[in-house]
Amino acid sequence: MSRSDRYDRGMQVRREVLGDAHVERAEASKTSLDTDFQSLITEAAWGTVWASDGISRRERSMLTLALLAATGNFDEIPMHIRATRNTGASEQDIVETLQHVAIYAGVPRANHALKLAKETYAAMDDAE
User: Fold this and answer.
1) Is residue 83 within 8 Å of 118, Cβ to Cβ?
2) What is the per-residue pLDDT across 44-89, written as a single tens digit (0 to 9) for each?
3) d(CA 26, CA 85)
4) What does DSSP assign to residue 32?
5) Does the reported pTM lie above 0.70?
C-alpha cells in the first residue's frame, strides 16, 4: 500500500472511529507546526494499525484505553471513550479493561482513567 493509500484509508478509518465532527475539528486546527505530525498519525495509527483486520475495533478500543491508562497518557482517554460508541466496546468492556490496568499497571492510573470514563460517558448521555 502506498503512502497516499495509507493516508486515504487512515482518514476513512479515523472518521469511522472518531466521527466526522472530531476529524473536521482536528483538520481545521492544523497549522504548519503539526501538519506533518497529523499526516504521520493518520498514516501509521489509522491507516496501518487501526485499518488492520487482525483484531476487531472493539478489541483495539480496549487495548488503546488500557495502554493510555497504563502509561499515564490521560488526555486522549475521553476521545477514545467517545469512540467506543463507534467501535462496539461496551461500558462493561471498559470496566474490565481498567481492572486489568489496575492489576498490571497500578490502581492510581486505573482509578484516574475510570474517573475520566465516568465523566465522558455522563457527558455523552447528557448530549443525547
Assistant:
1) no
2) 999 999 999 999 999 999 999 999 999 999 999 999 999 999 999 9
3) 19
4) T
5) yes
